[in-house]
Amino acid sequence: MQRTDMQIIVVLAEERNMRKAAERLFVSQPALSQRLQSIEDSWGTSLFIRSKRGLEITPEGEKIAQFAKRVLEQEERLKEDIFSNDDAIFGTLKMAVTSIVGQYWLPSRLKSFVDRYPLVKISLTTGWSSEILRHMYEHDSHIGILRGDIKWKGPKIHLFEDVLHLVDTEISSIAEVENCSRPFIQFKSDSSYYQEIQDWWYSHFKKPPERTIVVDQIDTCKQMAMNGIGYAILPSISLTNKDKGIYKIPLSYKSGKEIKRDTWLITHEDALELKQVKAFIDLLKGRDYLK
Q: How far is the C-alpha of 272 from the C-alpha of 256, rounded, in Å?
């Protein structure tokens, strides 16, 4: 089995979705589907069952995916061992980050790292903080970047904190929210973020919003608020000076304490021995990116 075939099987097993797998592999869906058919023909068995919900992996497919993942991991470790005493920094940097961080904070930092260390390959997974934590516990990633109150026994670095803001084209003070009939636009997030919003809301108001709209992505939520459809609560990481025509009101409890979200980098002790991991963390520290 070719290396690219093994990568395809592993990614499909992880994503269970043809579109998402195609995006990760940088190929079109038809090309990926055709390649998967060829792989299944060579094995003489179905590895995945297509359904409206996505892909279901067969028992045979699960065994082959586990084998392929072991081979790829062993190959990567072998490369790292061979060149561990070399001054050049390369290998694969496996990162799992929350979607918000991956969209707004990470790109400029990652570009600086790639520019400085062009031999390093980047493997990036995004999701909610709970999903990132699972990746780290399962040792699927070298570095995890996630938000909130994180319970982690390994190395942990505080990256930055940001304040939550109420964003709207019309509302200019918190007092106006209670009598607002326009919808409260929310984006799907992990339970800790949702709980923080709930705690703040009921510390100021006695009843829930009259109308709510829930969307999948934070950027969709932001664009809807910026276009006057309703108001939203967004972290400052997602807001810039280029956002014109909107009010951005920092949230605080009645005590005056602002509501902030912490962002952390977590890793494993053994991962810190890898040059690419240490180089990434050193770049963040050295370039004053921890803010």
A: 40
**Tens digit of each residue's pLDDT (9 = 90 or more) over 207-263:** 889 899 999 989 999 999 999 999 999 999 999 888 888 999 999 988 888 999 999
Task: Name the residue among 266, 21, 48, 39 with its Cα closest to residue 140.
Answer: 266
Report the CATH number that the domain containing residue 34 is assigned in CATH: 1.10.10.10
Last residue of a domain, one of 74, 92, 119: 74
Whether 59 maps to a domain, the answer reads yes
* pLDDT for the residue 288: 44
Could you tell me the CA-to-CA distances from 142 to 67, 77, 267 in Å, in that order? 21, 13, 6
DSSP 51-84: ETTEEEE-HHHHHHHHHHHHHHHHHHHHHHHHTT
Query: For position 172, which CATH number holds?
Result: 3.40.190.290
Q: How many domains does the chain have?
A: 2
The pair of structure tokens assigned to 158 is 């505080």
Tell me the per-residue pLDDT of 105-159, one tens digit each, with 9 for 90 and over: 999 999 999 999 998 999 999 988 888 998 899 888 999 999 988 889 999 999 9
Residue 48 lies in a domain: yes
The span from the CA of 188 to the CA of 128, in Å, is 9
Degrees to nearest 5, angle at CA 189 with 106 and 204: 115
Please write down the HEC assignment for all residues of 164-206.
EEEEECCCCCHHHCCCCCCCEEEECCCHHHHHHHHHHHHHHCC
Of 39, 74, 109, which residue is a domain's last?
A: 74
Q: Does 99 reside within a domain?
A: no
Q: Containing domain of residue 1, as a range?
A: 1-74
Q: pLDDT tens digits for 36-60?
A: 999 999 999 999 998 878 899 999 9
Residue 105 lies in a domain: no
